[in-house]
Amino acid sequence: MIKPINITSLKTTSTLQYKCEKCGDYGTIKLENSIINVDNAGNSIYPLDDYKCKKCGEKL
Ligand SMILES: [Zn+2]
Asked: What is the pLDDT of residues 5-22, one digit of tens each?
């Protein structure tokens, strides 16, 4: 599971919260060089497919 948090009034964020369904690791990811655009429901407009668990490598 990975989802945008700390969404601004412009419906963007550079912070993602994740929880690995395989090993249970969780935390936040601060994006340094990109911004996520979110819809009215707070979901990313584009699929967040490129993120893997740092501990076990499972897709988040
Ligand atoms: Zn994991």
From this structure: 999 999 999 999 999 999
The Å distance, Cα 22 to ligand 1 centre, comes to 5
Strand, helix or coil at 10? coil
Domain ranges of the chain: 2-37
| Ligand 1 midpoint to CA 24 (Å) | 6
52 Cα to the center of ligand 1, angstroms: 8
Q: In this predicted model, what pLDDT tens digit does every residue of 33-49 receive, in sequence order?
A: 999 999 999 999 999 99
Q: Measured in angstroms, how far is the CA atom of residue 26 from the centroid of ligand 1?
A: 8
Which residue is it, tokens 């550079």?
A: 14
